[in-house]
Amino acid sequence: MSRSVKKHPVWNDQRSPGSVWAKRQASKAVRRYTRGISDGKSYRKVYCPWNIRDYSFYKTRQQAIHEWETSDWRKLRTPTLAEAIRNWSKDYRRK
Question: How far is CA 23 from the centre of its chain?
Fold first, then answer.
């Protein structure tokens, strides 16, 4: 099994239904565009990129531990610190 990890602890919201739908609509608009699209970044003018929601969240291990120690609802959700670290690793560290 591979032991590769991300360089930076980032969680990207690319799997939510809203962002997937918006990206699909953008690719449809570009493919169906009848006028010619020149090389480069001119495809961006066909569909407004502000409609695509790409969120990125950055959280280090120490921040996750600090949030678990100070927040009551996080302790209810993950009763042990080891579970909290495992959840952080699953979301932010592993590929």
Answer: 14
The answer to whether 93 touches 5, Cβ cutoff 8 Å, is yes
Nearest Cα neighbor of 28 from 8, 62, 51, 5 is 51
User: Strands 56-58 and 10-12, how do they pair?
Assistant: antiparallel
- How do residues 10-34 score in pLDDT, each as one tens digit? 887 776 777 788 888 888 888 888 7
Structure tokens at 82: 């080891």
Residue 10 parent element (H or E): strand 10-12
The reported pLDDT for the residue numbered 65 is 93
Segment (H or E) for 56: strand 56-58
